[in-house]
């Protein structure tokens, strides 16, 4: 099982603004820092993108939802565009 942690020190939502080269429109990308335990000595930090209107995840321990995975055009397993987390205690 994949363990992901959002800790209280740095799980606050941040907004990254980018200006579209094509349209000049300002695009906002909401994200949070998280840590994945993948078998190494230390967890690795990564970024979780938040969808429009989605609430930020509170600090806690999570695993990946089944909705976080997809199958690509050539049959390879891949992550979905937006990763979804499930609190670890609720995962069955």
UniProtKB/TrEMBL annotation:
Keywords: DNA replication, DNA-binding
Organism lineage: Bacteria, Pseudomonadati, Pseudomonadota, Gammaproteobacteria, Enterobacterales
InterPro entries: NA-bd_OB-fold, Phage_M13_G5P_DNA-bd
Molecular functions per Gene Ontology: single-stranded DNA binding
Pfam families membership: Phage_DNA_bind
UniProt GO BP: DNA replication
Domain of life, source organism: Bacteria
Organism: Providencia stuartii
Entry protein name: Single-stranded DNA-binding protein
């Amino acid at each position: 099982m994949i363990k992901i942690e959002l800790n209280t020190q740095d799980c606050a939502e941040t907004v990254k603004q980018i200006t579209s080269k094509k349209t000049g429109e300002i695009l906002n990308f909401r994200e949070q820092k998280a840590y994945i335990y993948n078998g190494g000595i230390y967890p690795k930090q990564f970024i979780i993108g938040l969808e429009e209107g989605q609430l930020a995840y509170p600090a806690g321990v999570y695993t990946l939802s089944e909705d976080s995975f997809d199958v690509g055009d050539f049959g390879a397993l891949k992550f979905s565009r937006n990763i979804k987390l499930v609190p670890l205690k609720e995962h069955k």
